[in-house]
From TrEMBL:
Localization terms from the record: Cytoplasm
First-level EC class: transferase
Any one GO molecular-function label of the UniProt entry: protein-N-terminal-alanine acetyltransferase activity
Protein's name in the database: [Ribosomal protein bS18]-alanine N-acetyltransferase
Gene Ontology cellular-component annotations: cytoplasm; ribosome
Length: 151
């Protein structure tokens, strides 16, 4: 992997840098305002820093035993280095520590690399949201996935 990196907790002061990252990684990113609402008692935001630069981030939302991975992304110039896998492992560990029983997520149907990563970590496909994601020329389905993490 070259550079050393660690997963860190992110705070509201990191929102602008998170927005920069999601804008690079997603064709239709969350707004800065939406990211700014993803802090507080129901949320956990994690990031990977390489040489003090945010290269990946994830937002987890949890209500009681249900946790949802709101977003996970890695700077396109840093993909393929294991950062997404490290973030996902940290998200799963955080959900387990927070006593979640199920971790949910939605992923673009066309995002085969992400779907493969989730399947590799034990997620199962559980449904489809038709036309959920915007694309350059319309909409794309979301694949619903879940991971049973009961202790």
């Amino acid at each position: 992997m070259g550079s050393s990196h660690q997963v860190h907790w992110l705070s509201p002061t990191d929102a602008a840098e998170m927005f920069r990252l999601v804008a690079l990684a997603h064709s239709h990113p969350m707004s800065l305002g939406t990211i700014e609402t993803c802090f507080g008692s129901l949320y956990s935001s994690l990031g990977i820093l390489v040489e003090r630069r945010l290269v990946g981030c994830a937002i987890l939302h949890q209500i009681f035993e249900d946790a949802t991975l709101i977003d996970i992304c890695v700077d396109p110039s840093e993909q393929g280095k294991g950062y997404g896998q490290n973030l996902l492992q940290a998200v799963i560990a955080n959900a387990v520590q927070s006593k979640a029983e199920t971790l949910f997520l939605e992923v673009r149907a066309s995002s085969m690399a992400a779907r493969h990563l989730y399947l590799k970590h034990g997620f199962k496909e559980s449904g489809i949201r038709k036309g959920y994601y915007k694309t350059e020329n319309g909409n794309e389905d979301a694949i619903l996935m879940e991971l049973d993490i009961k202790a």
